[in-house]
Amino acid sequence: MNWSWKIGRLAGIDVYIHWTFLLLLGLFVMSPLLGGEGPVAALTSGLFLVALFGCIVLHELGHALMARRFGIRTLDITLLPIGGLARLERLPKKPLHELLVAVAGPAVNVVIAGVLMGVLALAGGLGRLLSLNAESFLGWPFLVQLTTVNILLVLFNMLPALPMDGGRVFRALLAMTMPYTKATRVAALVGQGMAVLFFLGGIFISWTLALVGLFVYFAAQREWQMAQFEAETEGVPAYAAMASRFYSLDTRTPLDEALELMRTGQNDFPVLDGGRYVGMLYGRELLDSLPLGRPALVGELTRFNIPGVSERDTLEEVLAAMSTTGLESLPVLRGGKVAGLLSLDSIRLFLAARRRAASAATAAGKECERHAA
Ligand SMILES: [Zn+2]
Which helix (H) or strand (E) holds 83? Predict the structure, then answer.
């Protein structure tokens, strides 16, 4: 993820932090200082945020380690001010596996809250936790606050609103009795309904809740589109959707020529060396290099480590390769030569054409039925 720094590696997974987290940390430290509460209160407030994000990292690690049990790698974990994000290379296919991966995160917070409550009970502070009173929340000691926040994290995450953990559990339960795409449709609609409630409630209660509502609404919509996309691309071979007319560049071609070719609408180019495929030139990287006084030749900006896909790979595999590498287009190779180019756009256009053909066929079918009657 852009603008994120690596802060460490846990169980073989890189953990990143987004720069906006520093803003939040600044806010947590500065507000007690500005309120005249002194440096100790400011330090406690900062430490609280760090401890809270520690709990969120462990939550994400719960998802990641459960996914690993089912052979799914986690690419990285990123901490954003709105929470954590564990990027799995793919979602589990079996509903039971998806359910377990989704539950593993909140389960970690249940354990943390349990341990903290044990500590509080020993210290005689459990009574303060039980006398829930939102107004005195900020005056509560550190451990009581941390316990409460962990409990809230569990309750909030388990709301059945896709893409939150509870929504994934809900989808997995539905998928045990109906097709996956339909289960996603239902779960996404329920998620969007709850998002509208968050938004409306948020207007009266807090703007953060309203923002979460907006976020959940669009994320649920994306989940549904992705599921639809996956259902449509299932089993389709790469060659069916690739662009077979495209420009290639040689490593020794001047970059000016690449810029000129980009005006035809092609953004990314296979790069050849003596007719043999060696890598890709990505238009976005070329444009990014312009203000820096760009290099002169294609070879200097070529990414040489792009393996490409085979014609027989399915679009599902291609999309998985795109999401793990973060690349929007990949070359399709046939015997070391570039047979075509696949991009998200070419896949979208292919699907649109197929949908059109399918609806034309249905219309023709109806016409025939009418004649027969
Ligand atoms: Zn989670």
Answer: strand 83-88
